[in-house]
Each structure stands twice: as structure tokens, then as C-alpha cells.
Here is the input.
Amino acid sequence: MEESIRITRSINRLTSSTSKSYSEDQLSLLSILTPRSGVSSTDRLTVFSILQKPPSGCTYSHQQRLVRLLYPRDKIQHEELVYLVGILGSGKGKIHDFRVQASLLRWLVVVYPLLESRSHVVELYGVLFFLLGYESLRPWISHILFQTTEKKHVKPWRIQYLTKLQRNEKASQGITGLLLLFKEYHPDLVVDYYYAGISASLFRHPDPEFLDVVANISTQQYLATRSPDSIIPSKRRKSNRFPEIRFRDHSTHDLADLSNLVASISRIALPAQLGCLFRDETLTKRLFVLRNTPQDWSRLNTWLSYTLIETLPDADLFLQLLNSVRDFVRYTRTVPIALEEFLVDRLIPELDPMSFIPLSEAFFDVILFLTSKIDTWTEFETQFVRPLTRVFEYMYKFQPPNYALFVSQFLRFLLLVLARTIDDIQSSGQSSKSVLMVNRLLPRYISLIAKTQKIDEPSALLVQLQLFTKLKGTVN
Here is the structure.
């Protein structure tokens, strides 16, 4: 207790020091006392005020020493954090010397495990992010942001700002490390980190020995008072260290050009979010086809199942997704389980004739892939022909403005199924299942053609109908 009082007195004396020698004496005393007893929250706030408006006798070197002697006796309070962040940057009421600001930020990085609550830093995320604009503060600000960033913080404008900083400061490992973290939440982000010299030691705790001293102070305090408020028990000390950043293998998103591909060919990995496979990225699709695992398919189906349901109410988003899924299926020649279950069990049985979905060419292209897995006419009729014919009958009866477009897509679908089935018969011989499919489907197709004589489409379709009629005679 006596040492705590002496520490408080020495710090208070520094607030009005006009002599360099007097400041030196007080700091010499603090250098002996603070590693043994630590500095209280109130005294730390006093130190911050000294750094904000240093007295004439407190030089730059004195201020740096004072920061290094701030061994916390208790947890870092919310009030301290707000005060500290408030005196950073430039302007009235800020610490004049940016070197002192950088030292203070380094101290905050060191004592980060001792914060009363991490949520206090989360509240100040926007202010801290703004401070990235100061080059001298950037390494430590990026370090703090790396420890604090959550999914909600990853905004497009922040990505744009970090990318701009990285472009101007290619050697800034902190900015590159932050972008790599942002990429985990935003897989589409392309991070160019080939010139930054990123190493596994980035964002490692800068001063583990400092925490050892604080642990000793806490242990002595606990032994003296038996207080349960010991801030960093020695058994947990190791778990409070900053984790190392682990950079995963290169993703196809990270390939800026051919030289990057050559340099990283042995370490290319699939992106963190496989939803990007449904975009126009041939290299990623090819890598998936060559290296996919059951776990990759499971991840892909999970993402697709959720996204299909989420985008269904939005016509534009759903059609965009459907077009992308069609391209993926065409490329991989495989229909994801999630897509099949969504279409067969949910979408097609409940298809609304007045919705936008029946008008989409991609919709019919996707279900055409599904029909290739159908073995029996009964299954094909139940899952596809009946529900789609129901939509056709409704449109034929009321003939809405989109009637002709739907008829065109539906007849095209049936025509392609017939063509594929007859091709199978001609190439591999007559099969009872294939013959049954043609014999059952062709009359349906003809009856639909007869009902649509008044529209423009059948003129071209009837020519093919005559062809199918001749072919039908070969399989009876």
C-alpha cells in the first residue's frame, strides 16, 4: 500500500514538473516501484493527461519512459480506453508528438489481454479505423483492429479504403494482414500480398515479458489480499497472448496474373466460400472438378440450399442465381443435391403460374439436367410433366401477356427430352424404358402443339414434330 501511494505521488509531481532533472528523479523512482506494485487505473489516467499536455520539464524521452512503466495493477477500464483513443490523431487536445502516440498504441496492444471487456474496443472500432490514415500509427492500429474485427465490421467502403492504402503502401504488412482477415468474411476480395513480405509472426504479441511482470504483480497482490480480482493469473497467462496469424494456402481469388499462378501452383486451394463457384470463374470451377472432396460438396450444398431459399422472393436475384447454377451444372456435368431437392420437393410442386420462374430459360435448362437422372416414365410424369402441364393449362385458359413465352420454353423443354431419348434409342438400341418414354411423351407433346396453333412458335416446331412422327414409327 505504501508503494502504491508513492507511485501516485510521483506521477502527480510529474504533472507540474518544470525541471528535467526533477522529472528524471521521479521516473527513476517509478522505474523501481511500478514493476513491483503496478499502476492503478486512476494513475494511468493521470499519465495520459501528462502525455496530452506535457509539462515543460517532461521531455520526449521522459514521456517514452513513462509509457513503458505503465504496468497495470488492475484491468484496463472503459474510461481509460475512451480517453486514450480520444487523444490520438491530430488537432486540438491531441498528443502533439506522433512518436508518443505510437508508443501509447503499442502499450495498448501489449495490454489488450488485460482489457476489462473487449466490447469496449468494439465500440471504438470506427474511430480506430479512421486512425489508419496516420502512417506512424498504422502498424499498431492495424494490430488492434485485427484483434477486434468481427463480421459486422467488414463493409465495402472499408475494403475499398484498405485496398487503396495497400496500393499506396505495398510494404505495409498490417494493412495486408487486415485485408486477409477481411477476406475470411468476404471471399470475393482479392488481396495482393506478394510484395508485402507477410510472415507468420505478423500480429504476434510484441512484448510477452511485459505480461510476465504484470502477472507477478497480480500474484503478489493476490497473495497479499486474497482478492479474486487478480487480473492475469499465472496459469492462464499463456492463453492471453495474442494468437499468431495463420495465412492459408493461396486461393484462386488471389491470382492476379499468370506469374502468380506459376509461383503458387502447388499451394492453390479452393476459396473459403464455395458459393463463388457459381460465378464466371473457370479456373475455380476447374480446380473444383479436379480436387473436390465429399466435404467440399457438403459445403457447396449447404451454401446453395440456404441461398436458393433466401433469394426466392427476389425475382432478379433468384434468376441471376439460377443462371449461374445452370452454367455450373453445364461445366461440371453434375447437379448438386441441394438444387435437386429444392426444385423437385419445393419449387416445382408449388409453382405459381403467374410467377416469373416459368418464363426463365435457365429454369427449364436446369430441370432438363435433372430429367437425365429419371429412370421411369411415372417418376418423370409426377415430378415434371404434371406440374408443368398444370401451369400450361392455366396459361392456356387465361392467356396472360407471358403466355407465348412460357409455351415456347415448355415446348422446347419437352422437345429436348424427346430428342435425347430418341438419340439414346438410336445409339444404344431399343430399351423398354426409353420406348415407353417416347410413346407416352410424344402424344402429350402433339396435343400441346395442337392447342398452340395460333401462336408463332409452332411453325418451326411442327417441322420437328413431323421428324418425331417418323422416328416414332421406328420404335413402335
